[in-house]
Amino acid sequence: MSVHGDNPRENAVNEVLTSVAKEEIAIANLIDAEAEKIKKIVDSHQLSKPDDFEKIIALQKSVAEILERLIQKQQILVKKLELIKDFDTDKKSEKFRGKSNIVSSNDCSD
User: One Pfam annotation, family name (predicted)?
Assistant: First the structure.
């Protein structure tokens, strides 16, 4: 018997939801860390030398790249949630509610 009960489909959905929630927390922590990094750099520089501006521009590019990757990760998480929202955990059958992309052997012609 699993922690979530005897329904393996429901267990799978719960595991996906748990993993998405953990990834969302990790993304939030990464964003907070990037914000802190920016704050430290800006607070520690008086922005009077050209070198200071170059460092800040380099930092901005680095943060933008990290945020771009986090956005891509976020899109993957949304797709995971969209996939499981149509997963019927009340039935023991192998069907999804709504549209199904599963092709049976009857659908194939030689």
Answer: A_ENA
